[in-house]
Amino acid sequence: MQPVISIQNLNHYFGKGNLRKQVLFDINLDIYAGEIVIMTGPSGSGKTTLLTLMGGLRSAQEGSLSILNQEMCGANKKQLTQIRREIGYIFQAHNLMTFLTAKQNVRMSLELHEEMLDQDLNTKATAILEQVGLGNRVDYYAESLSGGQKQRVAIARALVSHPKIVLADEPTAALDKKSGRDVVELMQKLAKEQGCTILMVTHDNRILDIGDRIIYMEDGYLKSDDVSTTSSSQVS
Length: 236
What we know:
This protein has a 6-stranded mixed beta sheet with strand order 6-7-8-3-9-10, sandwiched between helices. Strands 2-1-4-5 form a 4-stranded antiparallel beta sheet, covered by helices on one side. It starts with a strand and ends with a helix. By secondary structure, the chain is of the alpha/beta class. About 30% of the residues lie in helices and about 25% in strands.
């Protein structure tokens, strides 16, 4: 089976000249369709940098990084933009437009896809908000929603266009235990229904059992890649 994300001998650097610093070292990783992969490790270990490269948010520098059969190493802006349309993003700070309603926030994601513009976007946005349990909050402005509700809107926005890959960066960091658990179980359920791949960066040991695999990073190196039977004591 062809991986949806394939990384070989990937190195990455920040800065130039004397200030150039290597932040990722010889990363090798394959992720397959439908997998839920959790990436954990200490702060500063390179997790978010690797996530942004996988998401086409910056161009890879050395080695090979293939996303949905598109090589990202040396990719130009047009190629990066094309691949971003195939990916859903969920961030720690949810990044909602507070002056828009929940439905308008989700609809904005659909408007990026030309092939969907002839469909009823409001109906699509409302339907997925109902799926995430916010059917009664469709017309609420984002600023009036709780933290957990905002993150549910962010999940709806990420999944409404049926992306092949969802990248989540610390999606439970600002949530209490129950809200955090509810959010990741919701992501898991919707992803399984849609057959999409999830890669989630987290420090939250309470949700590690959601993953099919746990990847542990440290000091820019991928240290281990285990199935989810790994005990949380090994990856905390």
